Structures are given as structure tokens and as C-alpha cells.
């Protein structure tokens, strides 16, 4: 059976750190915490779980802090988490099985990262990350913000999920780090830096500047295809939010250049035509979304709504507007299988009942 070191970097995480450590304490063999300047009770709480607590002077570089944490590990494999992550009980059991059965030739194990949830607690957004890596390979982190762990060799995808439970925001921290880096003469942004700076600008509603960097990223032709798709989706969302659906539609179609069509893009195209009251065109694209199969073991970002209930709910609207009430009813019922308590679906049922359907 392999042994595992948990390596984390933290700062002022008193509200979440106990939940994180409590969820993994029976999985890992060693807990290493690197504190980058906490002024609350984080260290006091961490002390209840481990004596391996180290201070690291913050230098606006997440990779430097993570690499320092990794350097303190002594076990076979390293697991990394953020303070607002947890391993739910069902995933903890999967982790214990993996720990007992993992082939030592494996260099890295990926896990799903659940980052979005609906009001019923269902996962709505997820992607994959390398989570468990062989210590002897000395894999390193790169990037001062939105850092990534560079791994290679034998990588396997697990069904384990890490659940993100963010309770607080750090509004301008990452944005300011990027802005400060831009002022340094010797710093040149990589395509990845351009992408994530664009994301920070977008999240802070600095849309004109965000679109400038997003298009610079796409035009570089150096981006990972999943990132290209995600950027196209975000630009589309922006234009749809300001009622410029034709502009948004162009970027949804552009996402097809990077891989086979995704349900997210088909739904956005469908929405653009629905917005224009072009119900036949909208129906076509929502139908396409229902026929697609989600890429297996993809590392991309997926909005599960687009792959499950959303296109059916929208098809209910489209077919009703086209006069096919029975087909509209059928799609509403398909959507109900995923969200039985959704107020919109319940409203639709009452509507269909009022016209003698269902």
C-alpha cells in the first residue's frame, strides 16, 4: 500500500481549514501545511492535525509556495488541496481503495474537481486536475497565479472527486498580482498568463479589457484546445448578456474549430435564435445538444445542465411556440427527470394540464 503526504498552502483560512483536514485525516499519512502569513486562528487549528507547519514569506508567487510545500513531503505520493476543498465520505472511501491498490508505476492520478452546484446540491460544473503525484519524480509547479503542476509519464484518471466549498472571496488579490507583474520590465506573459489575466478581468467585470486579452489568447494559436473552447463560451456569454446575440453566436461557432461540437455551445447558439424568435433554428441546435455524448475523461470544463436538462427545458419552449404542444410536454418531462422540483418545470406542467395535455 502506498503512503501519502498532504501538502497545502494556506493564509487566513480559519473558517474552512478544519473541514478540509477533517475530511482527509484518515486518508493521508502526513500533513504538511505551509502558511503564507495568516493573522487569524489558522495556525492554531492546523496544530490540532499536524506538527509539520511551516512559514513561507509571501512573494506574489503561488508556485513558489507550493513547491516549498512539496519539498517537505516524505511519503510515496503527494496529495494537494486548497483550504476550501473537501473530500466527501463517498470519495474518501474511493481514495482508501485507491491507496491500497495503486500500482507504484503510476506517476499521477487525476480526480474530478466539482466547482459548481445547483440549489439542490447537484454538481453542475466540473473538470479534472492532477491530484496525487509520485514524490520521487519531483514534479514542479509553474506560474505565479493560477499555477499548474507539470506532470508526465504514467497518468491515470480516477473517479474520485474533490469538492470545492468556497466561503469567502479574495476580490482583487490575483488581479493585482497580474497588474503588478505587467509593470515589471523582465516579465513576459505566456499564453496561459494571458488567458488567466483575461479571466480575472472578466470576473471583475472589466469586459473590454478582458475581451482584448481573450482574443489575444485565441489569436496566438498556442492555447490548449479546451481553454480555447472555454474562452469562446465566455465571450459568447458576454455578448448575449448585452443582447448582441449575433456577436456571441460567432464565438460559439468558433469553438467548433477546436474540437467536435459541445452541448454548451449548441445551447448558446440555440439561445441566440430563441432570443430572435427563430424557433426552428433554436430547436435544431437544442436538439443537437441532446444528441451529443460528453467526451470521456476530458479535462475540459463542463456545464452539466447543457448535457442533461437545459436543452429539454428550452425545447419545451420552442415546440410550444411552434404549436407542437405534445412534443413540448415530452421534453418538459425529460427535464423533470433531472430537476423534479424545478419551479419552471412545475409551471409548465400546470400549463399543459390547462390545455388538456399530460
TrEMBL record:
One term of GO molecular function: glycosyltransferase activity
EC number: 2.4.1.-
InterPro entries assigned: Glyco_trans_2-like, Nucleotide-diphossugar_trans, TPR-like_helical_dom_sf
Keyword field: Glycosyltransferase, Transferase
Origin: domain of life: Bacteria
EC class: transferase
Domain called Glycosyltransferase 2-like: residue spans: 5-125
Pfam families: Glycos_transf_2
Protein name from the UniProt record: SPBc2 prophage-derived glycosyltransferase SunS
Organism: Clostridium chromiireducens
Gene: sunS_2
Amino acid at each position: 500500500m502506498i503512503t501519502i503526504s498532504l501538502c497545502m498552502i494556506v493564509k487566513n483560512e480559519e473558517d474552512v481549514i478544519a473541514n478540509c483536514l477533517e475530511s482527509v485525516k484518515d486518508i493521508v499519512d502526513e500533513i504538511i501545511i505551509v502558511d503564507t502569513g495568516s493573522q487569524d486562528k489558522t495556525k492554531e487549528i492546523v496544530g490540532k492535525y499536524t506538527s509539520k507547519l511551516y512559514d513561507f514569506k509571501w512573494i506574489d508567487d503561488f508556485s513558489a509556495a507550493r513547491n516549498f510545500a512539496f519539498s517537505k513531503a516524505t511519503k510515496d505520493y503527494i496529495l494537494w488541496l486548497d483550504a476550501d476543498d473537501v473530500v466527501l465520505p463517498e470519495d474518501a472511501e474511493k481514495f482508501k481503495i485507491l491507496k491500497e491498490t495503486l500500482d507504484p508505476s503510476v506517476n499521477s492520478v487525476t480526480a474530478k474537481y466539482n466547482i459548481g452546484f445547483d440549489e439542490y446540491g447537484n454538481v453542475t460544473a466540473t473538470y479534472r486536475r492532477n491530484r496525487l503525484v509520485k514524490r520521487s519524480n519531483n514534479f514542479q509547479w509553474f506560474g505565479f497565479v493560477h499555477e499548474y503542476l507539470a506532470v508526465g509519464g504514467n497518468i491515470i484518471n480516477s473517479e474520485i472527486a474533490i469538492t470545492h466549498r468556497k466561503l469567502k472571496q479574495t476580490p482583487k488579490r490575483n488581479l493585482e498580482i497580474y497588474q503588478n507583474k505587467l509593470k515589471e520590465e523582465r516579465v513576459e506573459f505566456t499564453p496561459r498568463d494571458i488567458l488567466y489575466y483575461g479571466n480575472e478581468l472578466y470576473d471583475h467585470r472589466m469586459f473590454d479589457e478582458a475581451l482584448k486579452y481573450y482574443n489575444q489568447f485565441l489569436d496566438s494559436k498556442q492555447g490548449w484546445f479546451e481553454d480555447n473552447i472555454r474562452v469562446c463560451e465566455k465571450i459568447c456569454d458576454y455578448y448575449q448578456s448585452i443582447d448582441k446575440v449575433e456577436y456571441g453566436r460567432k464565438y460559439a461557432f468558433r469553438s467548433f474549430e477546436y474540437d467536435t461540437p459541445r452541448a454548451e455551445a449548441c445551447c448558446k447558439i440555440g439561445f441566440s435564435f430563441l432570443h430572435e424568435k427563430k424557433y426552428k433554428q433554436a430547436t435544431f441546435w437544442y436538439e443537437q445538444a441532446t444528441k451529443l455524448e460528453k467526451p470521456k475523461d476530458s479535462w475540459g470544463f463542463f456545464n452539466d445542465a447543457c448535457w442533461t436538462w437545459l436543452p429539454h427545458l428550452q425545447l419545451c419552449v420552442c415546440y410550444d411556440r411552434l404549436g407542437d404542444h405534445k412534443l413540448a410536454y415530452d421534453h418538459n418531462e425529460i427535464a423533470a427527470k433531472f430537476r423534479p422540483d424545478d419551479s419552471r418545470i412545475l409551471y409548465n406542467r400546470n400549463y399543459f394540464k390547462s390545455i388538456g395535455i399530460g
